[in-house]
Amino acid sequence: MANIENLTGKILEEAREKQKEIIASANLEGEKILSKKLQEAEEIKKVILDKAKEESKSRKERIISNALLKVRNEKLAVKQKVMDEVFEKALEELCNMNSDAFKNYFKESILNLDITGDEVVILNEPNKKVIEQDFINEINNMLKARGKKDGLTISSEVGNFKGGYILEKNGVEINNTFEALISSKKDELEYEVANLLFN
């Protein structure tokens, strides 16, 4: 019986030792797992924070870029408005030239055009009062002296434009209205005007 008790005691003692080893091993394994999971959590946290910082920086740059673009577009719009006003003022000045200046312009431009000399001149209401038939006859004599026809006439039609004139022959028009002249020169002159105004 003492042997059985010794044997039982020995078995219990070994079981307790084994239990301690298993618990110690489990604790050690648990600490390793916990440490690994904490390390993984730290890495995930770092990735999330880095990504958030990057997104924040990117968003900030986009906001600044959009604001700069908006300011640039507004400046361009203001510059374009000023330039449009300059061209509008130039058109006004042309339309307000006195009678003698308009007659000189009309005569010089007609004589410098490649025309046959039998076109019809369309004028607006104010210029119809300035360019009379006697003046057209004078220009016809000059055209004839240059070997062209002397059949330039004034149309009964009144043009719906601010200034200048239109020459018409067989349905084909040469548009020498001030609006058309300014428009045709605008692209050519915009760069120069912008440099004068804004540099």
Automatic annotation (TrEMBL):
GO molecular function per UniProt: ATP binding; proton-transporting ATP synthase activity, rotational mechanism; proton-transporting ATPase activity, rotational mechanism
A matching Pfam family: vATP-synt_E
GO biological process: proton motive force-driven plasma membrane ATP synthesis
Keyword rRNA-binding: no
Keywords on record: ATP synthesis, Hydrogen ion transport, Ion transport, Transport
Gene3D superfamilies named among the record's database cross-references: ATP synthase, E subunit, C-terminal, F1F0 ATP synthase subunit B, membrane domain
SUPFAM superfamilies, A to Z: V-type ATPase subunit E-like
Single GO cellular component term: proton-transporting two-sector ATPase complex, catalytic domain
Homology family: Belongs to the V-ATPase E subunit family.
Function: Produces ATP from ADP in the presence of a proton gradient across the membrane.
Protein name: V-type proton ATPase subunit E
Source organism of this protein record: Clostridium paridis
